[in-house]
Amino acid sequence: MSEAPHTWLQAVAEVAKLAGDAALRHYPSPPAVELKSDGSPVTVADRDAEGKARAFIEEFFPGDGILGEEFGVSRPDAPRRWLIDPIDGTASFIRGVPLWGSLVAVVEGERVVAGAAYFPVIGDILTASPGHGCFRNGYACSASSISDLARATAVTTDERFARHPERRAGWARLAGRVQVARTWGDCFGYLMVATGRAEVMVDPVLSPWDAAAVMPIVEEAGGVFTDWSGRRTAFGGSAIATNAGVAKEARLLLAEPAGAPEKGSEHA
């Protein structure tokens, strides 16, 4: 990769803003909702937003691959790929709840080069590139320094864990230990960890287009990002994001017997 890291930060930010601003034009008036094969909702706003992002990538990075939630894969054999979730939190979006965002990442193999998470309604954008920091609206941000779970806040997307019910027990253990447990989830939960407003965000099921953008954001803010089994990866099908201070204890509480099968993403 010949381009400088700051160039990738600028590029993922621009694509995320294109997607998010396209989606914002459909918000908060609820567009018609369809159900995808996995039962998750999708709207014309999702497709419009991803289309805008893809058009930019096709124009300026025509040799790169693209993996998007709505339109699938383009050039799957390209050494560099863009991962796009045009509206992470569609269920919130269609109900007029502002805690949704647009996620974009650039990856080479399974190495994340840069990621951006844009929250159009609240006016925040987070960007990060490994080794070069995490930035909120252009200013460096960091996870909290709390190391006592009794003072911590933990968040998740849906505490029912409908697609992974065997993980409810771990969440219940964690929620019983922290000071605050809430469902301020989807990508907003990772923003909270990266900016020091929550210490733990968990997703029992997570797709690569959800995880790739937020992994460097959490890590470059000083946090820890793993899948549910503790592997440092954006491609493990699940996520536990924490600050450094509660990382070990939170993961011990969430731990489950090995061998549970992964299923489709709970993000909607």
From TrEMBL:
Q: Which domain of life is it from?
A: Bacteria
According to its UniProt entry, the protein's GO biological process terms are: inositol metabolic process; phosphatidylinositol phosphate biosynthetic process; signal transduction
UniProt keyword terms in alphabetical order: Hydrolase, Magnesium, Metal-binding
Q: Which InterPro entries match?
A: Inositol_monoP_metal-BS, Inositol_monophosphatase-like, Inositol_monophosphatase_CS
One Pfam family hit: Inositol_P
Q: Which residues cross the membrane?
A: none
User: GO molecular function terms here?
Assistant: inositol monophosphate 1-phosphatase activity; metal ion binding
Instruction: Specify which residues bind Mg(2+) according to the UniProt entry for this protein.
Output: E69, D85, I87, D88, D210
Q: Which cofactor does it need?
A: Mg(2+)
Name of the protein:
Histidinol phosphate phosphatase
Which taxonomic lineage is given here? Bacteria, Candidatus Eiseniibacteriota
